[in-house]
Amino acid sequence: MRNIVVCILVFFFSIYIGHCQVAVVKESKFWIDAGPGAYNSGHTSGFTLYLGANLVFDSTQYKLRTLLHDEFLLFGPSPSEKYYSVGALIGKGIYTRFIQIQVSAGLGVTGGITRGDLLYTEPIGGGWFDFGDRRRFEEKRFFTPSIPIEIDLLITPFKFVGVGFSLFGELNPKRPLYGAALKLGIGKF
C-alpha cells in the first residue's frame, strides 16, 4: 500500500514539474477517441474497449473516459469476470502540430462481476469435446470509487484525425487494474 501512495504522489508532482515545458494552447481542442486494448488486474486479464471524450482549454485537458473490460476465457470457469469504469480526468500535456502527449488523473467509479465461492463442479461427460474448466462459481457484483490515471500519446497527421495509444490504470480497493489501448481520435486537434 505504501508503494501505491508513493507512486501516486510522484505521478501528481511530475505533472507540475513538466508544466514549465507545456506549449500554450491558444485555441480549444476537442475530440472523441475509441479503440481496443488489453488489461491485467492481477486476478484476471483480457480485452478492453476504450471510449473517451476530450477537451483541451488553456493548456489543461479535461476528459470523460469509459473502459469496458472482459476476461479472456476459452474454456474457463463460469462466470467470466467483467468490469467497467467511468472517470472524469484532468491533466496537462505537450501539444505540437503532429504529436500530443497528455498525463491525467481524476475520480471515477468501477464496477462489475467477479467470481465468488465455488458452487459446484460439473461431472465429466466423456464426449470428444468435453474439456475445459467445469467449475461454477457464485456471481458477485461490486461497485466502488476509483482513481483513474492515464498517459496518452496521439499522432495527428491531419487536423481532424489522430492515432495513438493510451496507458491506463484504475486504483480501487476491489479490483485495481492496468492496461493499454490503441486509439483512433476524431475531432478538432
Describe the model.
The two termini are 39 Å apart. This protein has 189 residues and is mainly beta. The protein is elongated. The protein has one helix at residues 2-17; strands at 29-40, 45-57, 60-71, 82-95, 99-121, 135-158, 161-171, 177-188. The chain has an 8-stranded antiparallel beta barrel. It has a single domain, classed as Porin (Beta Barrel). Strand 2 (45-57) and strand 3 (60-71) form a beta hairpin. The chain contains 1 helix and 8 strands; from the N terminus they run αββββββββ.
Question: Topology of this structure?
Answer:
Elements: H1 2-17, E1 29-40, E2 45-57, E3 60-71, E4 82-95, E5 99-121, E6 135-158, E7 161-171, E8 177-188
Antiparallel strand pairs: 1-2, 1-8, 2-3, 3-4, 4-5, 5-6, 6-7, 7-8
What is the gist of this entry?
With about 190 residues, the protein is mainly β.
Biggest beta sheet summary: 8 strands, antiparallel, barrel
Principal-axes geometry comes out as: elongated
Q: Rg, please? A: 20 Å
**Highest-level CATH class:** Mainly Beta
β-strand amount: over 45%
Question: What is the first-to-last residue Cα distance?
Answer: 39 Å
Helix content: under 10%
What's the total count of β strands? Answer: 8
CATH architectural arrangement: Beta Barrel
The number of helical elements comes to 1
From N to C, what is the helix and strand string?
A: HEEEEEEEE
CATH fold-level assignment: Porin
